[in-house]
Amino acid sequence: MNNDTTKIFGLRAIIEAIHSGKEIEKVYLQKELKGALASELNGLIRKNKISSSYVPVEKLNSLSKFQNHQGAIAKISSITFTDLEELIESVLKSDKTPLFLLLDQISDVRNLGAIIRTAECTGVHGIIIPVHGSAPVNSEAIKTSAGAAFKLPICRVDHILDAIYQMQAVDIEIVAVTEKTNTTLFDIDFLKPTALVLGSEHKGISASVLKIANTKGKLPLLGEIESLNVSVACGVALYEIVRQRM
Fold first, then answer.
1. Is 235 domain-assigned?
2. What is the pTM of this model?
3. Are 177 and 115 in contact (CB under 8 A)?
């Protein structure tokens, strides 16, 4: 598939795309859309946990450039996502010490792309993002990643908490990168199986995630600015892990 997101127009076309196993990034539905096909599509969206939103017809006209959209437009993802359970199992069976990234609603596509690029360069085994609230892995993110998005497994989950519980069940330590601690990342033992959590650009890691993280670590800030760009913080944290594991 090419590096751009492909759009599908029309209820029946989107239904068939879902049935055929296409990775749907998001479905846009016209407000107050009714009928048998609309009901069928809504059922498939719920069953397959596809991101969707109801929008005015003007939004659909803009997305379709006035093609006949029948009140529904879907975007096919530029990449194929990986099943989290299968990814964890395959990494645990390898002779490598697991290293994952959990991204708690990173919303900027360039930050996401930069993180993916650094993750691939530092041996991360997979990135986990939520279905809702995350920047899309679109053409811009892929370009910023220098193509790393095609090389590194990326998983989508309903909730980051679900992924954390799955990992903790197999003794993968969850390390939250946050300033809300007195411990620096340089004081944490990364020789054990690890999943780093990074939060959104504006809100940081959500309170519910911080509550269940095994460990919290911060990067020391010596200047007057209160925080680092999330992709920069991610790079520093990952290279500390590389340093310890080399």
1. yes
2. 0.80
3. no
